[in-house]
From TrEMBL:
PANTHER family in UniProt: SULFATE-BINDING PROTEIN, THIOSULFATE-BINDING PROTEIN
Chief place of localization: periplasm
Top-level taxon: Bacteria
Organism: Spiribacter vilamensis
Family: Belongs to the prokaryotic sulfate-binding protein family.
Entry-linked InterPro entries: Sulphate/thiosulphate_BS, Thiosulph/SO4-bd
GO MF annotation: an example: sulfur compound binding
Lineage, broadest ranks: Bacteria, Pseudomonadati, Pseudomonadota, Gammaproteobacteria, Chromatiales
Cellular component aspect of the GO annotation: periplasmic space
UniProt protein name: Sulfate transport system substrate-binding protein
Keyword Signal recorded: yes
Alphabetic keyword roster: Periplasm, Signal, Transport
Amino acid sequence: MYRGKPGLPPIHHGIGRIAIGAGLTLALAMPAPAQERELLNSSYDIARELFADYNTLFEEHWEAQTGETVNIRQSHAGSSKQARAILQGLDADVVTYNQVTDVNILAERGNLIPPDWADRLPNNSSPYYSTMAFLVREGNPKGIQNWDDLVAEDVDLIMPNPKTSGNARYTFLAAQGYAQSRFGDDQEKIDGFLSDLLGQVKVFDSGGRGATTTFVERGLGDVLLTFESEVNNIPSQHPDKGFEIVVPEVSFLAEFPVTVIDANIEEKGTGDLARAYLEHLYSEEAQRLLASFNYRVHVEDVATEVSDRFPEVELMSVEEIAGSWEEAMENFESGGRLDRLQRR
């Protein structure tokens, strides 16, 4: 159970946590050397590089504040897959995901966090946000400017599978939001647009990083649909390929929720460390790091500094598009709307 808002973390030279399967009897019998405390962050597929850098930043911050050195470990995959791993026993201290429903499931099915977890940190416990954008090939040969251009017959799309990827669900909802803004209440036209768009997808990868690899390394497709942050990072990583970025005028507000896993941190005694790890994401230095990975941030001074890199976009929330996350997720159930649209 959540134990209240933490203050400045105390110095804590904890005895190293005993790994599952290690000899408990032997560990208790021998003098316990002082060991570096560890924290495990369960995160989404495309955030490896971001949290590798953030972990270094936080470890330096924590040592300056407390004198204690810590080791932050990270685990990455599609956030839905990561949530299932925690329900099956992965002892993550914190999660940093790309979809609210993947955090909710930890409360609803696992009773590992309280139902009101989103109220524990500012901005619905989402330290940063993004939206969905397009990456096109050099010279933008297919003239992609907006969602309408994606349904032309000669345009091949690459995106993850909405069944397995939060990244792809955001894309689906962004396209639905655009269709709603264009066609109003005409559900037949909205569904027709979404069906056409899904029909143009050449490869549905299981996760966002796989889709990036398919587009960049395998050279398949005319347009990659993924987070704006990922789209903005790729050209600098592959300057020889001449990729170009297109951010549509209407898209989806993609939040990145974080929380401690109460049941795990209480068992491991890492509550002070885990809470500080997430709270530091809201600091100016962490927000600058997030912005350097092309995420939109909330701290006003930092957002102003980097405003020229993020075009103004009409960002629609899940409530505006689908009513709620629960209703949005019905699209992706077996036999649901996604399946029906792909059969049209």
